[in-house]
């Protein structure tokens, strides 16, 4: 029987978005947030989230962020890398609270029952709904688009604000038969979304082999294995594919490194859709894009995150 590690980070609401972003960038496609505010929070039914809340799961102060990894030889190293990046958030002025990380071993049969209680189908944009493969999605609108994911031990719901910002940008700017590039593809959700919207091809790049495998698996589940081409690459270095749309849902510091390459690879009038930018970095990214030759089309904000859409 396969064994897994449940990693729990005790932190603050303020740090939630930044920490979940770090976890997703590490190739872990889902987290569980245990926030005592969920006990009293009114919910926007647009997202269709369904929770089963137990008071005993919640800390007295702050929040728990949990994620899951296979109990393998490199698990400790991956946890150490994630913890190091979380610690670095303090230098950005983010209050990490207790910032305590604990882990425990669980068995696969335990997880199979526990994980499925947390997530149901989630509508993340005007057209796109994300659902685990075990859930039947009812009352989908005629023009609705469904992304199915088989999480195994990790399931990205797509409710992270930066994912929603990116998908909404793709809905607005991807045209039929477009070629797109997905920089830092993670679980492949944006590549899948882009192809469902109408792109004829998405080239998905990530430096993490776990992310590449996840993207390939999810593309196959959604019948898009022939449209999504995923491979390891360091951002856009040594890439020569010309694209109509480039999407980058990564941290601002990384976006800054690929702005010039994005301009080089985009066709005239091509769109550069970026997300994962904190407020403090917004102007720096805008300045870098403008200097590269881009025209800024939109600057959107959701919670603490900024999405910038630019045109070549």
TrEMBL record:
Major enzyme class: transferase
GO cellular component: cytoplasm; ribosome
Catalytically driven reaction(s): L-lysyl-[protein] + 3 S-adenosyl-L-methionine = N(6),N(6),N(6)-trimethyl-L-lysyl-[protein] + 3 S-adenosyl-L-homocysteine + 3 H(+)
Compartment annotation: Cytoplasm
CDD domains linked to this entry: AdoMet_MTases (cd02440)
GO biological-process terms attached to the record: methylation
Gene3D superfamilies linked to this entry: Vaccinia Virus protein VP39
Assigned EC number: 2.1.1.-
Binding-site positions, S-adenosyl-L-methionine: 163, 184, 206, 249
One function term, GO molecular function aspect: protein methyltransferase activity
Keyword tags: Cytoplasm, Methyltransferase, Ribonucleoprotein, Ribosomal protein, S-adenosyl-L-methionine, Transferase
UniProt KW Methyltransferase keyword: yes
NCBIfam families documented for this protein: prmA
Family: Belongs to the methyltransferase superfamily. PrmA family.
Record function comment: Methylates ribosomal protein L11.
Record's protein name: Ribosomal protein L11 methyltransferase
Name of the coding gene: prmA
């Amino acid at each position: 029987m396969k064994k897994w590690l449940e990693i729990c980070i005790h932190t603050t609401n303020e740090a939630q978005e930044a920490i979940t972003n770090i976890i997703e960038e590490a190739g872990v496609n889902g987290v569980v947030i245990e926030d005592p505010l969920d006990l009293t929070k009114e919910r926007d039914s647009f997202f269709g989230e369904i929770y089963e809340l137990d008071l005993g799961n919640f800390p007295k102060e702050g929040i728990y962020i949990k994620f899951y990894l296979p109990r393998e030889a490199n698990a400790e190293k991956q946890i150490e890398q994630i913890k190091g990046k979380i610690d670095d958030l303090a230098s950005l002025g983010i209050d990490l609270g207790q910032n305590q990380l604990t882990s425990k071993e669980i068995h696969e049969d335990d997880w199979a029952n526990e994980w499925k209680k947390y997530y149901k189908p989630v509508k993340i944009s005007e057209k796109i709904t994300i659902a685990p493969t075990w859930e039947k999605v009812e009352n989908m609108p005629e023009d609705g688009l469904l992304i199915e994911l088989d999480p195994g031990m990790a399931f990205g719901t797509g409710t992270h604000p930066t994912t929603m910002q990116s998908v909404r940008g793709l809905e607005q700017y991807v045209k039929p038969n477009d070629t797109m590039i997905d920089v830092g593809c993670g679980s492949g959700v944006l590549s899948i979304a882009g192809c469902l919207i109408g792109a004829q091809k998405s080239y998905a790049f990530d430096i993490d082999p776990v992310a590449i495998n996840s993207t390939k698996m999810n593309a196959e589940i959604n019948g898009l294995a022939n449209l999504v081409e995923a491979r390891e690459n360091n951002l856009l270095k040594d890439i020569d594919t010309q694209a109509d749309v480039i999407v980058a849902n990564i941290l601002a510091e990384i976006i800054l490194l690929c702005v010039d390459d994005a301009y080089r690879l985009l066709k005239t009038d091509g769109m550069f859709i970026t997300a994962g930018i904190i407020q403090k970095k917004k102007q720096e990214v805008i300045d870098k894009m403008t200097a590269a030759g881009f025209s800024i089309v939109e600057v959107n904000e959701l919670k603490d995150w900024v999405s910038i859409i630019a045109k070549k």
